[in-house]
Design brief:
Low-confidence stretches: none
Helix content: 25-40%
Shape: globular
Mean pLDDT: 96
Strand order of the largest sheet: 7-6-8-5-4-9
Strand content: 15-25%
Radius of gyration: 19 Å
Number of strands: 10
Order of helices and strands: HEHEHEHEEHEHEHHEHEEH
Largest sheet: 6 strands, mixed
Amino acid sequence: MPIKSFDELIAHLKTHHLKKRVAAVCPNDESSHQAIANAERNGIITPLVFQSDDPAEAARQAVEAVRRGEADVIMKGFVNTDVLLRAILNKETGILRKGRVMTHITLAQLADYHKLLFFTDAAVIPYPTQEQRVAQIQYVTHYCQQLGIERPRISLIHCSEKVDAKNFPFTAGYGEIKEMAAQGAFGPCIIDGPLDLKTSCSKESMAVKHIDSPIAGDADALIFPDIEAGNLFYKTITLFCQARTAGVLQGPDVPVVLPSRGDSAESKYLSLCLACLL
């Protein structure tokens, strides 16, 4: 059965003993410490702490642990994002292989939605190219399948349901993506768009607007057009809807938990759980 909540995700990790080695970079803030302790107590991770007076050195050591095959996940603690990313992206000693796209994926649990919902990208790629958008869909499709969703419904988001190549050039590429999906490029999945957010996640809204789409108001994942839309959605659901969220970077050799330093201990814990799912 598909996993439909974070509690079910955590139970799945425990039941199947999906324990991962986590290279934690400078996890000396309270929320990171609590998240790591909780994950270790529940048998989900084995923490490998990398601490140094020089955060760049701690980041370098964590990346090197991955390269040696000693760590399965990297977690950012109380360290600037750019410091960790420099170590990950280093052309000689980093862990982002040539040709790979790095993007941020969020998983959300909202009180009024009947299942978990993926979306991308709220943190990394400002304006995705067609190639980057294709990579986002590949990552998201794989994650959905890890949740037990056999044919994930992936919605290509826009402010309306019409292609507008003049004002919104990215919508022209949605047709190509749908063709790729129909030819099996992403494995078993359903992809449609452009669709707005409401019709993507509401059967009633889709019916009222007389839209015929295989998404059927039942999206498993949303591909936002740019970082502004994705970030605004993320901030809105966490501030006004008290959504539970988890986020990871995909593209590097291992998943990277890259929370904001202001994120809660629970959000960091759930992000660790999501990273351990792969």
